[in-house]
Write the structure tokens for this entry.
Amino acid sequence: MKRPDFLERVVQARRTAHRKYLYAIASTAVFLAFAIYLTFASEAFQRHYLYPFPYRDTVETYSDRYRVDPYLAIAVIKTESKFQDGVHSHRGAIGLMQLMPDTAEWIAGQLEDPSYSIEAIHEPERNIRYGIWYLSTLQREFGGNDVLALAAYNAGRGNVQSWIREYGWPADFHDIDAIPYKETREYVRKVLLTEHKYRSLYPEAGGIGSSMKD
């Protein structure tokens, strides 16, 4: 049975209204997605919320003193602790740069720091100083190779030296996928990506400590 004309018009009107409603929703969603993208992509937003640079003076001071790239140093801090100075790992690592107490004690001896204590490792400035100094020793040990130095920071220098001997890694080794430990592979990759972001967002920091490989 054929619908009366007025019912057909009602149905068509409803269909048209529904299509307009769906179009409006889709258009709004696209606009919001674009606005969110622009917000997240903006340099100001990224610098303030996604890649902040706290403790910048301290990082730049010790990066310059120990000839470590400040972008690499801040990337390690962000990856290790997300800038939480009171954080402890399940393995016992402490503070911003997640130093193990035994390593921190050894560093204190190398730096002839008479005021060292376990409690003192929580202090942001001391933790950053120790961590950047340790990172500089790893870079020297591994010939300025950031991949190897970062792997050693995460997995221990003994493990990395063992891998070099076992797998015959060259001095210019950069094959992150070849690192045996999944955690260390992911760590090295994350730090290097984070370093790249900081380098692009804070070009003005490039003159501090960045000539350590020269």
Summary: The chain has a mean pLDDT of 88.
